[in-house]
Design brief:
It holds the Pfam family DDE_5. The chain is α+β, with helices and mostly antiparallel strands and 430 residues long. It is built from 16 helices and twelve strands.
Amino acid sequence: MAASHSVTPGRWSAMLDELMARIAGRFARVEPRRRAAAFVAGLLSELPRKNCWTLAEHAGDLTPDGMQHLLARARWDADAVRDDIRDYVVEQLGEADVVLVIDETGDLKKGNATVAVQRQYTGTAGRIENSQVGVFLTYVTAAGHALIDRELYLPESWSGDQVRRERAKVPAERRFATKPELAAQMIGRALATGIRGWVTGDEVYGSSTPLRTVLETGQVSYAMAVASNHRITTAAGTRRADEIAARLPKTAWQRLSVGAGAKGQRYYDWALITIASEQPGRRWLLIRRHHRTGELAFYRCYAPGPVPLPVLVKVAGTRWRIEESFQTGNGLTGLDQHQVRTWTSWYRWTTLVLLAHAFLAAVTARERSDHNAQPDLVPMTLPEAQRLFTRLTSGPIRSIAFVLHWSRWRRRHQARARASHYHRQAALQS
């Protein structure tokens, strides 16, 4: 029976030990370094709720004081750990066909004392709510994806309020910056390390002329969403994006998939329009049309040279990966579960969450690479990796065979469901 085990808990534990050793030098003393390891172990656990209290209990502490000290007052460099995380993700996921995805996510909050909280729009709620917004950067390759950078959006209402700034310990040098400006900072840090690839994001970033200019000046290719009323200049003049789409003949559209989904290939109709410009490089308006509902989406694209349509389609279709990163970051490693109030604590909590999330992404990528010829199983996922890691490496378990039996049962059931969806899709298209 043991010979059939495809998962080796000892290797996963060794990978985590190596990752924690990698960041050990970022801590001034051994105590916070050990506390950080216990903190990350708690983030990787299946605790239903993750905050300093639950993480302290998981670590065997009698009070949450030690975990709170780690976030607020202990001496360690969260930005240096962030850089270690980015390098680790690049090593684990590879450097081929890289896409950097930028987006923000909001955490709903009460009151106005928590750093950077105000009434503002957040996609989490889909409306204006009292919330705190962070901007994040995800690194995507064919092997997987993981969050590699973060910045807290400090609204203008906070930027000039000295009393609240001091209470929340906002650094004196930090001033108001728009979300696209924060995105440019994070992308710049990634590029400075030698990362090369495409950039994509939603309308907040695609509509930002300064951000597009920064990318084009650095000859960084992008395919970012824009609104239907975004104005585009072509050889025929300047018009709204939706007006251009309405004038296109049937022959302008091609049906292409943006990739495999849980229920089949994700097909859309696509059209590509050249944008007129006297600046170096190539620019396009990419239009996506849902082949059943007719719903349209628009992307402004740039590259230093010619690019085939399928490449632009693939990049545009990669943007949803950051939504997956937010879902797994929130659901698995507690990205949105913090109960911190200060600037330093937010950055430290978020950085350790990114570390835990990067570890799960690395484990998942490793298992997919080692066991990619199992047609009766869906590939390893981050939730499954967390479940196995927790049950095989911490606390009493029934047996390795029992845990792996349930893992294979779940994945086989998912594989059958996916195959059924694909067969149904093929039958409908035939």
